[in-house]
Amino acid sequence: MDLKNFRFETDADGVALVTWDIPDRSMNVITAETTAELGKIVDKVADDPAIKGVVFTSGKETFAGGADLTMLETAGREYRRLAKAEGEEAAMRAFVDNIGGLSRTYRKLETCGKPAACAINGVCMGGGFELALACHHRVMADGDKVRVGLPEIKVGLFPGGGGTQRVARLMETQDALQMLFKGEQIKPAAAKAMGLVHDVAPAGEIVERAKAWIKANPNAKAPWDDPKFKLPSGRIWSPGGMMVWPAANAIYRRETYDNYPAAKAILNCVFEGLQLPFDLGLQVESKYFAKILLSKEAAAMIRSLFLSMGELNKGARRPAEVPSTSLKKVGVLGAGFMGAGVAYVSANAGLDVVLIDQTIDAAEKGKEHSHKLMSSQIAKGRAKSADREALLARIKPSADYADLKGCDLVIEAVFEDRAVKAEATRKAQAVLGPDVVFGTNTSTLPITSLAETSVKPENFIGVHFFSPVDRMMLVEIIMGQKTGARALATAMDFVRAIKKTPIVVNDCRGFYANRCVGAFIGEGHRMLMEGVPPAMIENAAKMAGMPVGPLSLNDETAIDLGWRILQATKKDLGANAVDPGQEKLLETMVVKENRLGRKNGKGFYDYPEKGQKSLWPGLAKIAGKTVDPDTISVQELKDRFLVVQALEASRCIEEKVVTDPREADVGSIIGFGFAPFTGGTLSYIDGMGTKAFVALAQSLAAKHGDRFAPNPLLLEMAKNGETFYGRFGRKETARAA
């Protein structure tokens, strides 16, 4: 055989070892070429009488990932070409047949009459894991970094290589659905307990164990190919099945609000497939997969959450002319919640950290935050005591700025006050000199003005983390008017080192994320003062695709912070710059009622020491009226929440606060949870069409005010039939899943 991506060798016992090792790639992925070669390999195994069985493994540290998205994009383009030439029915028939090719290859392997085993030596995801599932026996290496899973749902797809049918026959239906819906990476012990793999062994033994199993089981077959096979949860139309499916459908609706076609397709594939013979179930899966692959939701999520995020993570916006920095030691000024979080993620990335605060006790308290986080990881089995001790050893708490000597970068995270920040900047630069890159973590204060206190403004940059730092993956890197390329490159190298996603924005009030978040929260405030029931506000936001409602989010971010920002805006821009209803609401909550949010146990919600939070009954009195919910359009509430944020993103593009649509979209999803199924704030507009979006915004403006008025750029784009990615987009380079 002429193979480029696999090595094929047969031992003296007739057991073939197939080693997957695509040249010039760090990870094996499913491509058109590998699919064709897999077909040749399966044919060889099936047809050669000298071959008694086959073991699949990888020549890389990882086993395999999912599909190369260029293959899926090419298939989509071919569908559109055929649809124009021969009609949609013929095009869809050919598309489904093409998409189902890999699934048919896996099924032929499974039914060729010879045993197949898989030796999983590293991360094994998506189509790679579906190959393993098509093998009769799976041996998984016992290692901290070894994982299996089917994560396609996270980019708007679902397993299309037999995954929905095999997983649903390996475990109880509710467990299978949960696995497919969550798309999580599963560790060896858990994978064995779930029945996804048969054996867990040291990495050096997995191939030999797989071969031994092949020799001992010459007549192996998949469980579902045994005439006596019974579904783990019984037949769907049975008392047991009826305990599962009504609940599954309700959970699906509760979690997705019907916004994610791929999730519904999973439900359909499993429900329909379990009522059919296995081969017909595979055909059902292929048809649904073809439909989902052509959906706008999948296209948007793949672009933003895979392609664009991959490009940004690889430094798409980093100045190419600046040599790579080698960061070893970082100074963090301020050991409060944010500073302590920055210290943790820095130390977790292997960097030495000097954590400075006014007193050694305050600095030690900041270090204790890392101890708590690591202890939590240990309790969950994700780390060991030795990992905690090593991380803590990298953090030096101090009240002496002289200890910053030797730091390659400083991140200032002191109290949000100009004078306090200026003093911290002065003290740090007195030790380190003007050439150290100085990053300030601020969510409200303009970077350009803060840089005035710096000895060298070109080395001063905003590095805006989101709370909690250890969990939030976005970092806004903010360019002041004088910030130089070296500062940008260093900040990006740092963000990438701590494994977070950077977006680059230009200086303005609120930057990018907080402007959009402020618009979202503000819309919730306005709805409340209009008399919309609070529970309806919260639920409508989640129905629109937001992770939490605006009132709940405001409780988390602190209501008094919103009050201070509103007052600062009023002082700087005048009374007309703030909404009087919102001002009345926040003044009542903060000044009169001392309801500051979760931090003091009372905000828009009450937070009892025991039990769940609940909406504060006093909210209705502040509004002074309650509108009959039956007279309110839920769709309009949903539109208001998404449109007001998308408009703010559009203004940020027009004002050149954000210059790359990829950053606007990725930042909106991972920074503040903007409806992922849309692909992000700008993809939401592009997906609807600028003309249709402008019409929707204008209808909302006529009813609710000028905040919904489309900006001049949008009006121009609608007139010309343009999209944000068409006008401002950059060539996408990352392609492999």
Provide a short characterization of the protein structure.
This protein is of the alpha/beta class. The chain is built from 31 helices and 18 strands. α2 (69-86) packs antiparallel against α3.
3D architecture notes:
Helix content is 51%, strand content 11%. The strands form four sheets. Strands 11-10-9-12-13-14-15-16 form an eight-stranded mixed β-sheet, sandwiched between helices. The chain is built from 31 helices and 18 strands. The radius of gyration is 28 Å and the shape is globular. α1 runs parallel beside α4 (101-111), α21 (534-544) crosses α26 and α26 crosses α28 (681-688). A hairpin with an 8-residue loop joins β14 and β15. Residues 731-737 have low confidence and may be disordered. It has three domains: 6-294, Alpha-Beta Complex (2-enoyl-CoA Hydratase, Chain A, domain 1); 329-509, 3-Layer(aba) Sandwich (Rossmann fold); 514-728, N-(1-d-carboxylethyl)-l-norvaline Dehydrogenase, domain 2 (Orthogonal Bundle), CATH 1.10.1040. It is α/β, with parallel strands linked by helices.
Per DSSP E runs of 2 or more residues, the count of β-strands stands at: 18
Strands of the widest sheet, in order across it, are: 11-10-9-12-13-14-15-16
Number of distinct helices: 31
- The radius of gyration over CA amounts to 28 Å
Model regions low in confidence, pLDDT < 50 over at least 5 residues: 731-737
Quote the average pLDDT. Answer: 95
Helix and strand arrangement:
Elements: E1 6-10, E2 15-20, H1 32-47, E3 53-58, H2 69-86, H3 88-99, H4 101-111, E4 116-120, E5 124-125, H5 126-134, E6 137-141, E7 148-149, H6 163-170, H7 173-182, H8 188-193, E8 199-201, H9 206-216, H10 239-256, H11 261-273, H12 278-293, H13 296-313, E9 329-333, H14 337-348, E10 352-356, H15 360-379, H16 385-393, E11 395-398, E12 409-412, H17 418-432, E13 437-440, H18 447-450, E14 460-465, E15 474-479, H19 485-497, E16 501-506, H20 513-530, H21 534-544, H22 550-557, H23 559-573, H24 580-592, E17 605-606, E18 614-615, H25 619-623, H26 634-654, H27 661-672, H28 681-688, H29 690-704, H30 712-720, H31 724-728
Parallel strand pairs: 2-3, 3-4, 4-6, 5-7, 6-8, 9-10, 9-12, 10-11, 12-13, 13-14, 15-16
Antiparallel strand pairs: 1-2, 14-15, 17-18
Helix pairs in contact: 1-4, 2-3, 3-12, 6-7, 7-11, 10-11, 11-12, 13-27, 14-15, 15-16, 20-22, 20-26, 21-26, 23-24, 26-28, 26-29, 28-29, 29-30
